[in-house]
Structure formats: C-alpha cells, structure tokens
Amino acid sequence: MSDLREVLREIEVFEGELPDFDVSELPADPHELFTEWLLNAIRRGVREPHAMTVSTTGLDGSPSARVLICKDITADGWQFAADRDSRKGRELSARPAASLTFYWSPLARQVRVRGTVRPGTPDESAADFLARSPGARAEALLGRQSAPLADLAVRDADVREAAGRIAARPGLVAPGWTLYTLRAEQVEFWQGDKERRHTRVEYRRTDAGWERGLLWP
Ligand SMILES: Cc1cc2nc3c(=O)[nH]c(=O)nc-3n(C[C@H](O)[C@H](O)[C@H](O)COP(=O)(O)O)c2cc1C
C-alpha cells in the first residue's frame, strides 16, 4: 500500500504547455466560453473530449455518477442521450437535476455545469437515435441498460438479434431512447497552473442574465 502512495506522489500533474485563461476577455455567456474550450480540446487532440461525468441523485438520495458522451451544446443547454429506464434515466425522472464534469487533462482544464434536466420530445429523441451507428442502435435497442446480466453470451446473442431487426427495419427506434438537455444554472471554468496559481471563474444564471466572478482555487 505504501508503495502505491509513493507511486502516486511521484506523478507529475499539469505537465507540458498549458493554455492561458485570460479573465479580462470573458464572454457574457458561458455556453460560448465552453464551446471555445471544447473546440480547443478537440484541436489539441484530447481523447474523447466530449466525454463528461454526469452526476445525478440516486433513488436512495446518495450520489450516482457515470461517464456519458455530450451530444451537443445549444442555447438550451448540454445534451446527452440514454435509456430512460436505465439507472440514470430513472433517477432523472425522480429528480430532474444533474451536474456535468469535463476534464481535459493535457490542458489542465475542468468545467463543471449544474442545472435542471428535461427529456426531449419523442421526435428529438428519435432523431438522435437514428443518427447513431447501426452497432450503437442495436445495443440501445435492447433497452435493458443497468439491468442484471447473467451471461455475456446472452448479450452477444441479443445484440446480434437486434442488429438483424435494424437491418430489416432501418427506421426502428428504441422506445426508451431519450435525448436529455441540461439547462445550466451554474458553470465553472477551472484552469490549472504548474505554480498552483489556478484560476476559477463561475457563471451564475440570474433573472437578468448571467453573472460571473472569480473563485478562490
Ligand atoms: C467514454 C464513455 C462514454 C459513454 N457514453 C454513454 C452514453 O452516451 N450514453 C449512455 O447511456 N452510456 C454511456 N456510457 C456508459 C455509462 O458510463 C454507464 O455505464 C451506463 O450509461 C449505465 O449507467 P447507469 O447505470 O447509471 O444508468 C459511456 C461510458 C464511457 C466510458
């Protein structure tokens, strides 16, 4: 155990060239700054830059988190898609609020977003489903996400069967597939610094628009 502690202590954090975070030039709207940071992460070759930890409240009131892909950022908010009968889907039905955490390691950047979540209309969700690859559609068509699975062979057989159904009917949509949109109430941008002069900026939604300010790191 103590060896592991040493190994972890030796790991360098915030290595390499880190971007500037000029707080004198902040846009009024955090969606704009987020999009700029995301595009920057894509340009810098960050793997899965659109992967984010989505934290919900468990049905027992305890935290519940997992990584999902961010589908889009619109003026309405951050979008992700999942099965409404999965654990997160059931949690969001009971309590439609979530927090998103992005971390782009080579840039030492973290973004945290908190807000309320609404499910998309059946048309919006179907459009998202149909834009997925056939393999991803076959997997989602099973609609049993987060249910216990007795054997991996059952998964493979069921995915094959679902792929067959999709090949026969390309317009098939998984009934539980849901495109969710998180409407942000709070967005925090964190820029790490080698000298520990980290910079945090928090945007808060108010009736009059977005307010923002620095936070102590
Ligand atoms: C990089 C990455 C991307 C993922 N993207 C999604 C996604 O977009 N939708 C989804 O339902 N699950 C996605 N998953 C799987 C989830 O992390 C999770 O295991 C699954 O959704 C079940 O979560 P739940 O039991 O809390 O509902 C992804 C996992 C990883 C590691």
UniProtKB/TrEMBL annotation:
Q: Give the cofactor note.
A: Binds 1 FMN per subunit.
The keyword Cytoplasm appears for this protein: no
Q: Does the keyword Flavoprotein apply?
A: yes
Organism superkingdom: Bacteria
Indicate the segments forming the Pyridoxine 5'-phosphate oxidase dimerisation C-terminal domain, all copies. 177-217
What InterPro entries does this protein map onto? Answer: Pyridox_Oxase, Pyridox_Oxase_N, Pyridoxamine_oxidase_dimer_C, Split_barrel_FMN-bd
Which positions bind FMN?
Answer: R66, V67, L68, I69, C70, K71, R87, K88, Q110, Q145, S146, W190, R200
Q: Please state every residue range assigned to the domain named Pyridoxamine 5'-phosphate oxidase N-terminal.
A: 41-161
Give GO terms: molecular function aspect only. Answer: FMN binding; pyridoxamine phosphate oxidase activity
Record keywords, A-Z? Flavoprotein, FMN, Oxidoreductase
What is this protein's name?
Answer: Putative pyridoxamine 5'-phosphate oxidase
| Organism per entry | Actinacidiphila reveromycinica
